[in-house]
Every structure is written in structure tokens, then in C-alpha cells.
Amino acid sequence: MFATALNVYAQDQSELPDFTEEDIFIDIPQVISATHLSQKLTEAPAAITIIDQDMIEASGAINIPDLFRLVPGMQVFHVNTNKMGVTYHGMTDDFPSRMEVMINGRSIYIPLLSTVVWETVGITVDDIDHIEVVRGSNVPTHGSNAFLGAINIITKSPVAESGTAVRTTTGALGTKNITARHSDTLANINYTLSAGSEENDGSDYYKDGAHNKFITLSGSLTPNLSDTIHFDIGVTKGYAYRGDSDKTDLIDAEFSPREHLSSFQDIRWSHVFDDQSELQLRYNHNYLKLDTENRTAEELVANGDAGGLSVAQVELVLAANYGSIAPKDTERGTVQTHELGALYTASPSEHLDAVIGSNLIHERVKSNVLLQYPDKDWIHGNRWQLFGNVQYQATDKITLNAGAMFEESTYVGGATSYRTALNYALTETSTIRTAFSHAHRMPSLLETNRRALIDYSILIPNTVDLLNLPSHLDSEEINSFELGFFRLWPEHNSHFDLRLFYEDINSATIRSTKIDPAPEDTVDGDYDVGQNNSEWTNQGAEFQFKYTSPSAHKSTVLFNYSYNQTRGIWNRGSYPEADPRIVPLNPVSPLHTASLLLSTKPTESSLLSLSQYYMDHAEWIEGFSDKNSGRTNYTRTDMKVSNTFQLDMNTELEVSVIVQNLFDKEYAEFYSNNIFERRAYLQMGLTF
User: What is the Cα–Cα distance from 486 to 138, expressed in whole angstroms?
Assistant: First the structure.
């Protein structure tokens, strides 16, 4: 079972369809991410949005998270200029934790922070071929992290392209980006080498800039007709400013550069036995180191953060806790993950397709800020997954899907998640889908082991200031039911996708404050601890409508809308002023979100597009939520104008102007001082 490597993206990339607009509307596209089986979109057991090349080009997105504004039910936000969050159905803080994100099937979820650190992923918008977004719990296929949904980013295949492309982006916030891609064939290896540098100065208020450099090598080797080997390796290095954006005073906010160094290695081997069966093995390794600036004893005393201690006393305390320093931000530490997996797919009959697989994931993390253990540097954890999915074509009109995963975690134990679905074809181009899922989310290493304190025993015996303490956590649980309708109009190049959903989440983990039973041994007697202290329901509807004109001057209309009513409670624990403090979760998710994309090609070489985004008021678990200060909702309009010039037979120059928030309707995003203003960019791309 543990041989090597689950190929989550269950097919050779070179064999996958390139989802052009025509392909999507002439033939119903094949998707992989819902079950590991290659299925028609109308036969999948979940709602899936495909972000294709035309959508990516028309969006004018500068970074990858912005693309998910085009997905019904998803919210994208800037925590600060260079820290972004992506969540499905809201209910998050500044570290969204309940969605699996993958690149070619390799998870980029970081257990040290229980989220995705987008600036460290090692790819840009230019590297993406298409994206599959599973809207709804997908734990039976991708495990705990896919509690509310899953994103699989598929990069461009070296087999499908050749030559060199260089792109520069300059403009707002002092942005200076340059990326380059070169694809070629060496012997029988198809490869793509990508590199780039992305830099900006951040906002005028916080000066929260960033600089990121990366290089990646991807390729495929096909020694014979039965075997294919894929590999992806890369390194990313740079910094991004971090601080407390909810502080209005710049000194209190303490923005400073948080450095990062990340690398990944991913190898996948596929062996085709015959037309009915295939074995895929995978190994991948992710490494990420985050480091922050430190505050000296003099700085702590000068800023009034020393609790009345002298510089000499603070130096003694620091030496006993952090090695003579105090970090300015908590995003500090090192994480490594190793994954081994195997996946076997078979088609025993014309009407039956099945897949079975297993993963072994080893994680280890260390942090002298988040995980303070005097007797060990590294915290280790293992997860084992055994899963399977079956698709059965019962009749010409009825397709049945069933899937399950048993997942065992070092700290929580084991749990079984499952999903069943029935798809009924009303006609050749319209389908009704019903699905039910019962799933579990295992807490991350950070959630189960977080421990932070300041030990003052060197000054006052047996005295500590408790900040965070670990506790036993059970798995989170979700029961979800959905009713879907998909309608395709090939003659009009359009489709309509509707999802009605009900999601019941129990035993959810949000940090709480507790009062220490022996406060005489602590500074203030209270500390934060992870607890299964929350429950809520999401119910509502979301739809996507897409139309593309059949004319030579291709025009596209894409409209997404989501209505999500959240009801629930969060027990924040014991507070001096309120014990217990029960907080309603009703406003923690936006009730309405919508996006509209209009694009047209006036000539074969030009493009004009407009994007409109709307998000209703949301009082995030962390962040700015004061309705009286103008942060009730926002509407943002983006524009892109581009033209391609044919310089010679093999050389093209593309020039684009991108304006975000075209009408300069300033709004506060996530935090009150994190103002999003009009931003304009000039892009130039040379292909040869």
C-alpha cells in the first residue's frame, strides 16, 4: 500500500483534454478531482467549476487567488497587501483551514499554519492550464483538508507547448514582476523550465511589500507505451511583510518582513496494464521555512511591552524563552511533509469504473513561537488514508457514485467518511444530481500541539504567562446534502449549473479562552486553547451561467451567484467579563456573493473584458467587522484591454492594460485600514 505515491491527478497530463471554450460546449468535459476517476462533468457526484484558459486570460488576475472570485460560493480577501485568503462558504479567520489546495494533485496545505501560504507555491497565473474546483465536501477523495471543498490547479503540460515566453507586469503598489517559461524536448523528455521575480512595495499606509523569486522544472518521460513518469521540482525564496493589520497605529501594527524558503519534489509513475486497468505511484516532499525579525529587550521596554520590567530583566526572560530574542510575528517555523501513495483504477465492465488507493503522510513541524516544547524541537505526526470510489452506469439515464475513506491520525485516531450520489439524465444535455456526504476533518499538527508561554521563573519562581496550551481535540464532522441541476446548450455554447445545499458542521475547532484553575501560578490566569466548541449550518443556493458566442469575435458572459445562510454558535470560553461567552455565527459568512465576467474579441488579436465582484457584509472570526465604519459590503469592477502584435512568423508581442477597482470605490477588505483602491498595471508578453 505504501509503495510510492498517489497520483491524485489520476491521469497522464499529456492525455488530459485541454479545456478550450469549444471543447467544453461541444463535448461535456472530463474531470478527475471529484473521485480520482475520469468522469463526465454530468456524471460526477459533486458540483465542479472549471476555470479554463479563456477565463484566466479574461480575468486579468495578477495572482492565483484572484481567479477564485469566478467560482460560486467562494470568497477571496486580502488580509494585507501580500497575504491572501481563499475560503468556501465563509466562516474563517485570516488562516482559512478547511479547503484542500493542490497543484497537479500535490497538496500545498501547510500544517504549521493550517492553511495555504500562496506566495510560496512556486507557480504563477501564466503556468496554469486550468483549475478544477470541487464545491462541497470532498473528504472521501482527498482527505481531511477537503472538509468544505477542494481545488486542483493543473499546470500546462510540456507536451502541449514549446518555445519561450517572457512576461513583465508593472504598475500599482510599485509592482515589478518578470516571469519566463521555456518548453522543449531533450531526448525523450518533455520539459518546462520556469523562473520569475515578483516584487511590490505594499500599501502606502503599512508599507507591507514583498519580493519573491522562484524556479521550477517540470517534465515527463515516456520510455514505452505503458509507462509514463512525471516530475515537478522547484524552489521559492523571498519575503512578505507581516503585522497586525487590525491595529490603526503603525507602531502597534509592527509590520516587518517575514522571510520564506520553500522547495518541493514530486514524482509520479503511471503504468497502463491494458484498456481496463492502470496503476499509479507517487512520492512528494514539501519543505517550508518561515523566519521573522526579532525585537530586542530595548525595543520591548521602549514600546511598553515589557510589563514594567527593566532591560536587564527582559534579557534574562528572553534568554530563558527565545534565546535572547523575541519574534515580531508568529508566522515562524519549519515544516516538512513526505507523502507516499498508490492508486489503482479499473473498468471491470462497460458500466463499472472503480478506484482504490492509499496514502501515508508524514509531517513534522517546529517553531519556537507556536510550538514551545523544552524537551523537543520537532513535532511529528502521521496520517494514513485508505479510500475507494465506484461509478456504476445503472441505465442510460442513471449514474451511481459511491466513495469512502478511512483516515487515521496520530493525535486523533481514525474516522470513516463516505459519500453517495445519484445522477439522473433528463436528456442528453441536462442532468439532476443528488448527493449525501458524511465526513470528518482531522485537526492539524498546529491545532493539536500549539503551545506558547513566557516563563518568568528566572525572576519569580513558578510564574509563567500562559498564551496557548495544547488540548485533546476530536475530529470535526460534517453532514451535507445537495441537489444539483446541470444544463448544457451546445448550439448556443452555454451552460447552467445550479447547486442547492445544506451543510451541518459539528464539533468544529475554534480557539477559546480558558481560566487556569491555579491562577496564582500564572501572570493573568487565562490562556487560549483549541476546543471542539462550535457548530453551524450552511444552507442556500448557488449557480453559474456561462455563454460564449459562436462568432469569430468570440464573446463570453459568465455570471456566478451564491446565497448562503449561516446559523450557529461559537463558545469563546471563559472571559472575566462574561462566562461563558456564546457568540452567534450568523454573520460570519456573507449572505450574498456574486461575480460577472464579460469579455469579447473585437479582432482576432485583441481582447476587452470587464469583471464585476460583489461580496456582502461578513464578520470574519478574525478581522474587521464594524458595520458602522463602512465595511458592510463591496462592489469592485476590473477591466482588461489587450492586443497581440505578430512581429514575425514565430514571434508575438502581447500588450495589456489591467485596471482593478476601475471606478475607485475604495473599500476596507478584512481589516479596517486595509483599503483597496484603484490599481492599474501594464503587462507585456513576448512569445518566440
Answer: 19
176 touches 196 (CB < 8 A): no
Name which of 14-28, 115-129, 378-392, 447-461 the model is least confident about. 14-28
Q: What are the strands of the beta sheet with 106-107, ordered from one edge?
A: 47-51, 128-135, 149-155, 100-103, 106-107
Q: How far is CA 117 from CA 50, 120, 129, 260, 289, in A?
A: 23, 6, 21, 10, 11
Q: Please choose, from the candidates 409, 421, 520, the residue with its C-alpha nearest in 3D space to the C-alpha of residue 475.
A: 409
Scored b (16 or more CB within 10 A) or e, 355-384 reads bbbbbbbebbbbbbbbbbeeeeeebebebb
User: For residue 255, is it left (φ>0), alpha (ψ between -120 and 50) or beta?
Assistant: beta
Query: What are phi and psi for residue 113, nearest 5 degrees?
Result: -115, 0
Q: Give the residue-averaged pLDDT of 478-496.
A: 92
State how far the Cα of 176 lies from the Cα of 438, in Å rounded to an integer: 46
Could you read off the pLDDT of 537-558 as tens digits, one per residue? 999 999 999 998 877 678 999 9
Distance (Å, whole) CA 249 – CA 229? 54
The pLDDT assigned to 243 comes to 87
Q: What angle do CA 392, 393, 394 make, to 5 degrees?
A: 100
**pLDDT for residue 10:** 36
Q: Give me the phi and psi of 562, to 5 degrees please.
A: -140, 135
Exposure string over 117-132, b if 16+ CB within 10 A, otherwise e: bbbbbbbbbbbbbbbb
First to last CA, the chain: 45
Report whether 230 contacts 246 (CB < 8 A).
no
Q: What is the pLDDT of residue 136?
A: 96
% of the chain surpassing 90 pLDDT: 68
- Does 461 sit behind a cis peptide bond, omega within 30 degrees of 0 on the bond before it? no
Nearest to 69 by CA among 634, 652, 654: 634
Average pLDDT of the residues in 599-609: 94
Separation between Cα atoms, residue 487 and residue 42, nearest integer Å: 9
Q: Give the total residue count for the chain.
A: 688
- Report residue 143 as a C-alpha cell: 482527505
Residues 6+ apart with CB under 8 A from 601: 553, 554, 555, 607, 608
Least confident of 94-108, 480-494, 601-615, 647-661: 480-494
**Spatial distance between the Cα atoms of 129 and 183, rounded to a whole number of angstroms:** 14
- 13-293+328-687 falls under which CATH superfamily? TonB-dependent receptor, beta-barrel domain (2.40.170.20)
Q: How far is CA 58 from the centre of its chain?
A: 21
CA dihedral 373, 374, 375, 378 (to 10 degrees): 40
Determine the average pLDDT of the residues in 52-66: 95
DSSP state letters, 449-474: H-BEEEE-TTTSTT-EEEEEE----P
Domain boundaries, the chain: 13-293+328-687
Tell me the C-alpha distance between 36 and 30, whole Å: 11
Distance, in Å, from the CA atom of 121 to the CA atom of 106, rounded to the nearest integer, reads 11
The pLDDT of residue 259 is 97
